[in-house]
User: Which sequence fits this backbone?
């Protein structure tokens, strides 16, 4: 990989020039094997591996319309895990994943449906399986650039390339479309934030869980291996996962046992008894609010309550905490494993909260959720415990080099020069809506600075139903088998993805963003989607 | 090359767009705001209709709608009928945000009127992007002084006097009439209570014991424990109940159960002192008899008051089977203010025009309150004063000491002054004719 350095100066080149650079450069890299191509049902499928070891796949329909969809998949774990309940129950994180994917979808079958539909419409598809997993934005961008070169080399009739991706893939797609001038339009699904901000978000949650619920959790500064067989850091990670699962289970059990006044876990040994008078659900909620996590999850809507005396109280004071707890549980894998991976990548702790004022982050949420936080006095007590001045809540200091490393990870900057569509959930716990707002802000700043053109960004939002928590006859909330729309970082339905693909293709073809009216018309029968240019989700606290 | 061509195309397109924008900028402003047609003005409210808060305050939208129906039956506003879309938020912040967003995006309302609750509405205001959409947010039913902050809530107009104002005036009342009695404050531990606590501080009231409780946390058991503790205070302490009506009822019923009603002098804040609601919540009439309460309206049972009388007549016809009380009075009064605001905004109705109309003319709107409105280009604060009375067994609020004494103040350190305000007369038949 390293013998092919892509500099930002390439942005100035035309795409044709860029391709010629690659055409020259590729042979000098580690020799890439020629792709293997087969034809199935009038579609030629070419697979191969580029000079850096990234696998790729290109599908070319017989009746090609000139446009290729380039897809970037989401983050894959670099660190392999044993089977662990909740985190890795089926062993999906136990094997290396490097296969390319050519279209988004909830399942492999759904991805294939999307792919087949687009192929039938005459679009070519392509995607890479990046050689490095984890937060591998530079590697993924480079793999995509190689892939574009290869595809155009194989199929010179490709005259339009549109880019799409989801989660980290959205981040990759956005960065690619901004930086190299070879993408005609982009659509980014639940766009990830920058590496620094995503990991700060995860680390804020981890640090507060450690501080309030189990001080023996390590959380940061995992031992760096000195040899391939050195597993000390890895074992620390596995230990942390086990401890976090224990805490989450204890919290869940406590709320189930006594929803109004759940007890603190036994592992909360640092917290004084005076603080433990506060129902622990309020501490759970506070952590979520301070970290920027949404207060709606796939099960809990922060509104509904079981029929009976607790109905209103549940929606007001219990449901928001349970939503945060559920969101934390489902984000656990990314947060802990991702943080470990980032530390290994950057050689040390990347998180530094020595100067963070968590109290200042609460803002209006202190009033809005006053009841669920058990009142202002209780909130003040918890915030005081999390204060920098409390020796029982020691802060984490990062190594400067590691912080520089994480801050230098490639990231989009809002310098949008081609039609760009984002589609995000309003209550996504992994890539919260605030990241899209940040992109909007960056874009507006770039326009002001003359680095971007106006009228090129369309934000489409996916929202939960007005209320959706279902309760069993016992009064227990029922977790849906299909994640609730608008929540939980779930992949969109096939119908929704195909609408986005249609809008993206239109943008790529015309060079213009679809009008709001056109986009609304395309989405008209979908009550879970909306477009509102005035909608302004709160920036993540790490971005303020 | 591809990029160069695209840039060229873009430059041409930009030039066309820019030229179009120049042409458009020379045209007069169009009345293109949502929710207004030649025949209709669509307004919206997100408020609790169900749940415990719904029981106490759920009559507000019905009262507003009744008044609008009355106005519609008499020609509407500049030929337009008013339609009120009501959505139930159960007094829950997240649901309020959802419902308010629905009002804006799905129902396409022109303006909001009468939203209720501080936590609910502050979340809804941001979530529904009311400021950036310039949605007039009229006469919110909360006394949280923060909603008077124009830079944060540029389209919001408060109507209730703030909790801080109430606490300041209450401090004066207690000091002048119950000097020597210990004072215990029982308040919600949120912005509502904190506003009140700040007001009591500003009013320099010495409080022996302050109890702050989270919303929805007061049960029969906790109320009894609270009163048992407070009963240890020597003498006949004054207990100030600065919370919602359901909590006032729970505490008064606990006092009944503990036989402690006569141990204390009870003062209920305006939010939690509606006698009809207390009686509906099974507080004994003998318990209510003698409770002190603050109000800025005439008593809803005072049929000699021209506003009360007119609103009662409208209520009988357009809000059938709903008992007229302070809540209904509040709803109808806000609706009448709304009609005046719409009239003042003129026939070419726009959101900006409506906001400007209230700023410029709202201080002179006719209303039932015995205290002035304070709207101006630099103030979105509504009423600013209170009077104190004593409930009798029928739930009527009679002026304390037999004489109506109205005081006004602000939410901070301003003086508490006897009011010289002269209320405008009720428009003929309750139908505003202002412009």
Assistant:
């Amino acid at each position: 990989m390293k013998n092919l350095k892509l500099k930002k100066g390439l942005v100035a080149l035309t795409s044709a020039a860029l391709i010629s650079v690659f055409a020259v450069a590729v042979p000098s890299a580690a020799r890439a094997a020629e792709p293997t191509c087969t034809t199935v049902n009038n579609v030629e499928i070419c697979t191969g591996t580029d000079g850096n070891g990234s696998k790729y796949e290109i599908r070319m329909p017989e009746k090609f319309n000139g446009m290729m969809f380039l897809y970037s998949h989401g983050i894959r774990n670099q660190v392999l895990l044993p089977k662990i309940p909740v985190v890795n129950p089926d062993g999906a994180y136990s094997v290396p994943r490097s296969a390319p994917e050519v279209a988004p979808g909830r399942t492999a079958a759904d991805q294939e449906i999307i792919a087949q539909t687009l192929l039938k419409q005459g679009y070519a598809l392509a995607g890479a399986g990046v050689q490095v997993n984890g937060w591998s934005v530079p590697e993924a961008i480079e793999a995509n650039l190689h892939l574009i070169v290869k595809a155009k080399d194989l199929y010179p009739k490709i005259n339009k390339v549109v880019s799409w991706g989801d989660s980290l893939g959205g981040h990759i797609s956005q960065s690619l479309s901004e930086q190299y001038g070879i993408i005609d339009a982009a659509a980014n699904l639940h766009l990830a934030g920058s590496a620094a901000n995503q990991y700060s978000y995860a680390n804020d949650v981890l640090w507060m869980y450690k501080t309030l619920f189990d001080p023996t959790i390590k959380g940061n500064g995992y031992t760096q291996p000195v040899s391939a067989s050195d597993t000390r850091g890895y074992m620390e990670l596995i230990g942390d996962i086990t401890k976090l699962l224990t805490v989450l289970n204890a919290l869940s059990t406590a709320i189930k046992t006594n929803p109004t006044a759940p007890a603190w876990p036994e592992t909360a040994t640092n917290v004084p008894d005076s603080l433990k008078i506060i129902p622990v659900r309020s501490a759970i909620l506070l952590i979520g609010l301070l970290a920027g996590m949404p207060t709606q999850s796939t099960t809990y809507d922060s509104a509904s309550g079981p029929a009976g005396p607790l109905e209103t109280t549940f929606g007001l004071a219990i449901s928001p905490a349970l939503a945060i707890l559920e969101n934390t549980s489902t984000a656990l894998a990314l947060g802990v494993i991702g943080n470990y991976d980032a530390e290994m990548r950057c050689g040390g702790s990347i998180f530094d909260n020595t100067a963070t004022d968590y109290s200042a982050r609460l803002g209006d949420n202190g009033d809005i959720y006053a009841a669920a936080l058990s009142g202002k006095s209780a909130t003040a007590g918890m915030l005081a415990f999390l204060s920098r001045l409390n020796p029982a809540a020691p802060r984490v200091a990062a190594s400067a080099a590691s912080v520089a490393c994480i801050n230098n990870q490639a990231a989009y900057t809002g310098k949008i020069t081609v039609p760009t569509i984002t589609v995000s959930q309003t209550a996504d716990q992994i890539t919260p809506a605030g990241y899209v707002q940040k992109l909007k802000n960056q874009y507006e700043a770039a326009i002001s600075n003359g680095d971007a053109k106006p009228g090129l960004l369309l934000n489409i939002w996916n929202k939960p139903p007005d209320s959706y928590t279902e309760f069993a006859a016992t009064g227990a909330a029922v977790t849906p088998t299909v994640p609730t729309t608008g929540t939980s970082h779930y992949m969109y339905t096939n119908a929704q993805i195909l609408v986005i693909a249609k809008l993206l293709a239109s943008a790529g073809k015309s060079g213009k963003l679809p009008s709001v009216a056109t986009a609304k018309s395309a989405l008209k029968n979908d009550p879970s989607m909306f477009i509102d240019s005035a909608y302004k989700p709160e920036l993540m606290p790490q971005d303020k | 090359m591809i990029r160069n061509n695209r840039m060229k195309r873009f430059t041409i397109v930009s030039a066309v767009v820019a030229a179009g924008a120049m042409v458009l900028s020379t045209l007069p402003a169009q009345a293109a705001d949502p929710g207004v047609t030649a025949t209709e003005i669509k307004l919206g409210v997100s408020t609790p209709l169900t749940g415990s808060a719904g029981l106490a305050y759920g009559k507000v939208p019905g009262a507003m709608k009744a008044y609008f129906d009355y106005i519609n039956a008499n020609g509407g506003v500049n030929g337009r009928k008013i339609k009120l879309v009501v959505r139930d938020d159960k007094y829950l912040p997240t649901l309020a945000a959802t419902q308010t967003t629905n009002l804006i995006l799905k129902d396409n309302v022109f303006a909001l009127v009468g939203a209720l609750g501080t936590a609910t509405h502050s979340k809804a205001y941001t979530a529904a992007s009311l400021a950036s959409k310039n949605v007039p947010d009229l006469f919110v039913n909360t006394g949280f002084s923060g909603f008077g902050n124009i830079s944060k809530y540029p389209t919001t107009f408060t109507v209730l006097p703030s909790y801080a104002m109430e606490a300041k005036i209450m401090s004066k009342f207690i000091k002048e009439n119950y000097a020597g009695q210990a004072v215990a404050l029982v308040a919600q531990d949120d912005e509502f209570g904190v506003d009140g606590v700040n007001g009591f501080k500003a009013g320099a009231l010495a409080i022996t014991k302050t109890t702050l409780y989270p919303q929805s946390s007061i049960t029969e058991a906790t109320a009894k424990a609270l009163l048992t503790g407070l009963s240890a205070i020597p003498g006949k302490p004054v207990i100030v109940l600065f919370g919602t009506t359901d909590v006032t009822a729970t505490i008064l019923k606990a006092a009944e159960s503990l036989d402690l009603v006569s141990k204390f002098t009870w003062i209920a804040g305006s939010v939690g002192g509606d006698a009809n609601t207390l009686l509906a919540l099974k507080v004994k009439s003998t318990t209510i008899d003698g409770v002190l309460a603050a109000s800025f309206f005439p008593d809803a049972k005072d049929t000699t008051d021209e506003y009360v009388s007119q609103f009662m007549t409208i209520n009988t016809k357009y809000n059938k089977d709903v008992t007229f009380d302070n809540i209904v009075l509040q709803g109808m009064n806000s609706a009448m203010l709304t009609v005046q605001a719409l009239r003042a905004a003129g026939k070419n109705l726009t959101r900006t025009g409506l906001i400007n109309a209230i700023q410029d003319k709202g201080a002179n709107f006719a209303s039932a309150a015995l205290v002035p409105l304070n709207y101006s280009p630099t103030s979105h604060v509504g009423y600013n004063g209170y009077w104190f009375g004593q409930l009798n067994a029928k739930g009527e609020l009679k002026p304390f000491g037999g004489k109506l004494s109205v005081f006004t103040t602000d939410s901070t350190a301003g003086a508490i002054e006897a009011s010289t305000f002269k209320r405008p007369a009720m428009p003929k038949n309750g139908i505003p004719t202002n412009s």
